[in-house]
Design brief:
Length: 342
């Protein structure tokens, strides 16, 4: 019984041993397609994932519409005062002129934002605009010109009375000295008339090149670039120049444009700086020249949030002049309130 059992078990063992490879072979045969199927699934999934990776950037570009420009301009943000590395002189001129054309369409009614009726009033108002807003000057000068309408009368005025009128403009003592000094010079050296030459204007007390070009361009129709704080800030932000001195900025930017465009260019840039491209938080999402600006993204890029940053008529508020040109009013602009108005 024991031997038979052992013999039987031996046969069974042999049978099992023979069967084992068969099972392995079967399992191997079955496993092989499974592996192929698995690899096929991986390939299939890989094929499905691959297009998704390619499509993802495209969605971003379509959604923003300007994502490509932003990505290209990103390195320039760190070196905002230097021209783009790959921008030639010709490309810079073309970009600068296109920006001016775009701004001309946005601000077709751009004008000097100081109220004036003659060259003398514009000269005095421009001197008073230092370290304050044009709006504040416009609210202050009506009383000044009503009492002292000519250079002779202002030169002979009581300084304390002039100071009291100019107090809202800030630095009123220094400004009183300047406007009375230039009035005296006009009365004594130029027969009470504002000269129409740059070399004569800059000799007047408190009058520099910026003030002189404002007067020449807007009172005499002679081209000039007004390099005020807004102009300096924007032309460097746009990488038109890396100069910091006003005279050098004037020369560098003037070389990019025909002389006949200088006065209007100044208005366009200054208006854009006051209304949209602010110093601390530009309204990038509402900027009409965003695709041309290497500094795009420094400010608010969300369109709805950017709209809330707009100032003056672009934001639905009154402009800076009490008596603006008719073209401005026809475009929907509103005059500023007089001094002391609620």
């Amino acid at each position: 019984m024991g031997e038979q059992g052992s013999g039987g078990s031996k046969k069974t063992a042999k049978t099992t041993k023979k069967a084992a490879p068969a099972k392995k072979a079967v399992s191997a045969k079955k496993a092989a397609p499974a592996k192929k199927a698995a690899s096929a699934k991986k390939v299939a999934s890989a094929k499905k994932v691959a297009p998704a990776k390619k499509v993802a950037p495209a969605k971003k570009v379509v959604a923003t519409g300007k994502a490509v420009a932003v990505k290209e301009a990103a390195p320039a943000k760190k070196v905002a005062v230097k021209p783009p590395r790959d921008e030639s002189r010709t490309a810079l001129v073309r970009r600068a002129r296109r920006i001016n054309r775009e701004l001309a369409e946005v601000f077709p009614y751009a004008h000097p934002e100081l109220d004036f009726e003659n060259p003398f009033q514009l000269l005095v108002a421009t001197v008073l605009s230092a370290q304050t807003t044009d709006l504040r000057v416009n609210q202050t000068t009506p009383a000044l010109f009503a009492k002292y309408p000519t250079p002779e009368e202002l030169a002979a005025a009581n300084p304390e009375e002039v100071e009291e009128i100019l107090r809202p403009c800030g630095f009123f003592r220094m400004k009183t000295k300047s406007v009375m000094g230039l009035s005296k010079a006009l009365a004594e050296d130029f027969g009470g008339e504002v000269p129409g030459r740059l070399e004569d204007l800059v000799k007047l007390p408190g009058v520099g090149r910026k003030t002189a070009f404002v007067v020449l361009g807007n009172a005499f129709g002679r081209p000039g670039i007004t390099v005020d704080t807004h102009f300096q800030r924007l032309v460097r932000r746009w990488q038109w120049t890396d100069e910091t001195d006003p005279d050098r900025i004037e020369a560098a930017v003037g070389a990019l444009f025909p002389k006949s465009e200088w006065t209007d260019l100044s208005h366009h840039v200054i208006w854009h700086g006051r209304r949209i491209c602010h110093a601390r938080k530009p309204a990038c999402g509402a900027c009409p020249i965003a695709p041309l600006c290497p500094a795009y993204g420094e400010g608010e890029t969300d369109p709805e949030k950017a709209k809330k940053l707009l100032k003056y008529e672009k934001g639905g508020f009154p402009g800076q002049r009490l008596k603006p040109p008719q073209a401005y009013l026809d475009a929907g602009g509103r005059p500023a309130p007089p001094l002391g108005a609620a």
